[in-house]
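Weekend entry, working from home. Most of the wet-lab plans are on hold until the incubator is repaired, so I used the time to fold the two sequences that have been sitting in the queue since the last round of cloning. Logging both here for the record. First:
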Amino acid sequence: MLAEYLAHLAVERGLAANTLASYRRDLRRYLEYLEERGRRSLAEVREEDVAAFLDALRAGDDRHRALCDGSAARAASAVRGLHRFAVREGLAARDPAGRVRPPRRPRRTPRVIGAGEVERLLAALGPEDTPLTLRNRALLEVLYGTGARISEVVGLAVDDVELGDDPDGDGRRPAGGERLRLRGAGGRTRAVPLGRSTRDALRAYLTRARPAIAAHGRGRGTHALFLNARGGRLTRQGAWGVLQAAAERAGLGGISPHMLRHSFAARLIDGGADVRVVRELLGLASASTAQVYTLVSVD
């Protein structure tokens, strides 16, 4: 039953691998809990079983630490979805989790960094224009300059980059022609315009660095935009490593790819952008999620 539900989430809803792993862990714990209470199938589960499990998440026990609000809310979402799936598949006559109130996920103010710290981060990559340095600069510019998730960035193909034309050959390109095509959760695609520094970093990487990296490795046949040193697609872990190394050299602790995403959104709000525009650029499902950035300033 659990395998079928997770397969449904992966195929029908397009959940990311990390989210699926968290759901799998939460639901295994839930099914073990039900077994301890003598419930042999989801059809036997009652509302009080679900409510007791959600309380146990927050309290912890000898085998499990107490979950924070966010993790408990995620587990509650997984449990509720599992029961809805069971009813839809005819494995249970009713949904015992439908009326159980999940723990409320707190709205936290996102951590952001200002333009000065971003400059320090980029400067820490070094002045030399080696292929890997140009790649790293383009990577960080894209993360900060588009607000993309790290999974979206490492999933980019070369064809997802549109840098516009230069019809007069004078180095000037018409505005509005530079953008990235990003693929978010559920396979949804959005186009994000590129600022000048992000565009220039991408152009330098594509013309002066990527061909060299591909030629020295296995990258000649791949369409991936960002390549690792061996010419294969750069992984999430590899991109994380680039950011962490630059942050350490810049003396900036605790910098994450999502912090750059938050900083991009807060910068837009600071500049007078409408929340609906921020939602669209970030690929958020709800405008209310983008509202949190109105509480943050990068000034």
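Second, folded right after the first finished:
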Amino acid sequence: MYTVLVCDDDNDIRRALRIYLTGDGYNVLEAANGLEALELMDREEVHLVILDVMMPEMDGVSALKRLRETSSVPVILLTAKSEDEDKIMGLELGADDYVTKPFNAQEVLARVKAILRRYMHSATMTDRPSVLVIGGIELDDENKEVSVDGEKITITPKEYDILKFFMENPGKVFSSREIYRRVWNDKPMGAEGTVAVHIRHLREKLEINPAMPQYLKLVWGKGYKLEG
């Protein structure tokens, strides 16, 4: 049974998500602010976090920043529809996805299922190797590890998915919309900004000089590609 931590200061939102998640077989932990969430994470094994941005004592962005210092657990942010800066900041700090309020609890459940299916089942296609190598980048899909020039690096689950997608399709150019559709398994609404943020963070971790990337390259007017 997978455990989902729901962190929101609104009791009604926590209750609604708890009903849908427990009804689908998930174990649910609840926190009313970022501090409570971090304390729970220290004590309990959590497989995914649903994290509200606006909360008292410690907001979701601050909690996410602290969380990413020690954990790569998948995180879905809950944001106000008009707060685009919160979405971008959350993605930059390592959030895997976001849902805007007001939301349909079934939509959140669907996103939880999709993320956990990718990250926890560790299912790979039998005709693909478990270790992918492009230049100095090595991705070990069995152990979910990435190294660059022999040094292991820490990346978020979503960054891992994007890198794996590119390494399975070396040299091919993909638009932001196509990357979003293939990696997020969702309609590419607002795909350009979301993908650009994740690509920038991947470059910072993979490249010697992110401003002049050796691997993840932009093809003007077309999209991105991975070269060896």
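Plan for Monday: verify the second prediction. The mean pLDDT is 86.
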